[in-house]
Design brief:
Layout (H helix, E strand, L loop, with lengths): L1 E4 L16 E2 L2 E2 H9 L6 E4 L14 E2 L9 H15 L3 E6 L9 H7 L7 E5 L2 E10 L3 H10 L5 H7 L3 E5 L13 H13 L4
Parallel strand pairs: 1-4, 1-6, 4-5, 7-9
Antiparallel strand pairs: 2-3, 6-8, 7-8
């Protein structure tokens, strides 16, 4: 199962849905769906508020099931809860602001896991905590960390559960480059101009 995390408040983009920003004639979310859909058996969008704004994506919406927008971990938990009910063993989670995701993301993350561990993507020496494969059996531990301990940092949970690292080259471009602000959008547009197939 795949899950795109779009439940945040996009403060650095001035609010709104950064995944709906246009890049090369398509929204960032459309680009992510095109990359991720062939890699998973079912694809969902974690989003809060009016689901109608994502209608063009034709994806089922999973809202946070923890109140007060506690961050990406709430979206991960919503995905794990749904996956458990639907009979999936793991959830490939990606952010809504990374339009150049690898076409082999899920397969390589899955290959990098052993003995029930999760896996997280790494490029240019940097971990990308919201690009990871989460085993469904971690959902109880994640709920406890999020609800009882108020632990909202994804990286802290990845370390706690010893997620394996799977590395991608950052050349000719970093496939996990994200669009968090206007500077990031300008960089993404320049990258797309140089690599139209990206």
């Amino acid at each position: 199962m795949g899950l795109i995390l779009a439940g945040g408040l996009s403060r650095r983009m001035g609010g709104g849905d950064k995944g709906l920003s246009l890049l090369g004639g398509r929204t960032i979310l459309e680009r992510i769906v095109m990359r991720l859909r062939p890699q998973v058996g079912a694809l969902f969008l974690n989003a809060n508020g009016d689901a109608g704004r994502f209608e063009a994506l034709a994806l089922p919406i999973l809202p946070d099931n923890v109140p007060d927008f506690p961050g990406p971990l709430a979206g991960v938990l919503a995905g794990l809860d749904h996956a458990a009910q639907a009979g999936f063993d793991d959830v490939a989670v990606v952010p809504c602001d990374a339009p150049f995701l690898p076409a082999d993301l899920v397969a390589r993350l899955r290959t990098g896991t052993q003995a029930g561990r999760g896996a997280v993507a790494v490029s240019a020496g940097r971990r990308h905590p919201t690009a990871a494969l989460w085993p469904v059996h971690l959902r109880s531990a994640l709920r406890k960390a999020l609800v009882e301990e108020d632990q909202r940092r994804v990286e802290a949970i990845l370390r706690r559960h010893d997620f394996a690292e799977v590395t991608w080259p950052a050349e000719p471009f970093d496939p996990f480059a994200n669009v968090n602000d206007s500077a990031g959008m300008a960089e993404a547009e320049a990258l797309l101009a140089r690599f139209p197939a990206a």
